[in-house]
Amino acid sequence: TSASRPSPEPTRTTCGYCGVGCSLDVVTAGGKVTAVLPARDGPVNQGHACVKGRFAHGYLTSPERLTRPLLRRDGRLEPVGWDEALAQVARGLRAAVDAGGPDAVAAISSARATNEENYLVQKFMRVVIGTNNVDNCSRLCHSPSAAGLTASLGLPGGTDTFDDVEKADCLLVVGANPVEAHPVVGARLLGRVLHGAKLVVADPRAVGLALHADVHLRPRPGTNVALFHGLAHVLLAEGLADEEFLRERVVGLPELTELLADYPPQRVADITGVPAADLVAAARLYGRARRPAILYGLGVTEHLHGTDGVRSLTNLAILRGAVGTDRGYGVNPLRGQNNVQGASDMGALPDFLPGYGRVSDPAARSRAEAVWGVPVPGRPGLRIPAMFAAARAGDLRALWVIGEDVCATDPDANRVARALDACPLVVCNELFLSETARHADVVLPVASWLEKDGSFVNFDRRFQRVRPAVSPPGAARSDFDVVHAVAAVMGVDLGCATPADALAECGRVAPVFAGLSHDRLDRESAVPWPCPDPGRPGEATLYAKRFATPDGRAHLAATPYLPPGEQPDDDYPLVLVTGRRWAHYNSGSMTRRGGNLELDPVDFLDLHPDDATRYDVRDGAHVTVESRHGRACLIARVGEQTATGQVFCSFHFPTSGVNRLTSDHADTVTSCPEYKVTAVRVASSS
Ligand code: SF4
Fold it and tell me: ipTM value of the model?
């Protein structure tokens, strides 16, 4: 929707829901938000916004907002003042270090937090605690993108600015539902199709864009790598690869050619369920386009072999010479959360410092040490799943969860809850008494994205400013202030007193961000990284001269297809895929507390009419869904959007227990959970 701007002067900020990064003008009266308008001059959204960014702000004044710190006493969470809460956190962290050393403490940071907050969290863990045990929620979504794109092309981000998609004449959209999950991007993609671009959609479900596709490939969940190899096989077999590009800028072609001999269309059809003729038609559309584009989502990454999926998908762009040239719109992940790119960019990762210097690299460590004035540990820390395992084993003695509802959104939620209960100190920064907060020892009330200052990085690597439109309620404070306050109680001044100072300091640790500052973002609205020089623009399109790999070349990946962690069987005959819906966002803690609940009031289990008949489930009936890991209760919605043998639901309603169903199978490279393949059975419960 587009809208005109009323007076008085609204606050310009960046949407805190999905990774598109829409610029929004927030209108207030009497200290309350009265309207959120899409900015006509927004660099990405150009006057548009979706139902989440535009209307889901009622949560700000929800009576359920946390306004005072809570401390667990005699098993109950009781309101206390900040001094008492901070003293308890500091005491607990010190006790954990005394008992088990610095590695007995861990922190989970978040895409919900600004860049500057993520920078401060990782600095706190490395400088105050002395551990690399810090991770962020990208572990659960796009960590395979970071690993796969880095291995193939050199940098852990999308390759092009989204503006260039306007020049694409063939869109290959894989494992993504942008019409619902990234509506502003979905609309722009649809616009391209209406202006003549070809569209290939690869997704097991009949997602919104599939209705407009020239070819819709519906692979069985977990068979992406075979699908992408099948497409690559056709590109090579039909002479659609860019031989000059391959000769001059690429390594790995002989190994890939040998592997692809095993993936002719008919064999791929047998593995994936995609008809061979459709596979060939899709490969020809992508292979013959003048400027083909690849955009993908979590349907590529959230698999046992998610990194292999990213790499084998990237192979297609490399084979076509459609990345690092003006002959294509590269390979671009549609990031789910607002700042999932930035949280990793800022070094809230157990193996990387800000700007992706490896903690194991002495040169990267010494750059950080020169700025921070303390030694940085060289051993990589724990990833999120390993933090929970360490807590269950008694090795992790304190966990600080910042803006994540891990008991609702992480897989095998029963095991996550057991891990939190086993950990002597759990601290939780939250807006509401979330599922995770209910297991915490200290709950700290914090500001939301409409109440704080900083910046986010969107899905095409653009830094944009976040500005407070209203004040947080009661005694709630920004995560930035809270981290500073805990450090101060522990006797450490973290420096960088303001978010602007933090971004400036980050630029001294990480050369790729050295050209960024709040002043510059205020002047220019959006600046992409890499941006090493304040006097030059950031790099919107990557790899024009060389790839960022050590040898400067793109690396084709010859990774064989391997099956997913779970397969349907007689006991659990259906495959559950989870994902997002239009009106809600992630655990739904914000979108369910406002008008969007009326748009989408309950979670449904989508299933095909054939399966509804087979399992005696009526449309609208209450159903019990069981996996090997747990049980959930949902309402059946029968329709053909979901293929036979599969069921689909969102994770926006934690009380339905969806993530009690999902398994702890995870990407073999990055530990990203396999949310997209869980074997389940369904029975009517009404
Ligand atoms: Fe834009 Fe995404 Fe926010 Fe919607 S949720 S307004 S598409 S950034």
Answer: 0.99
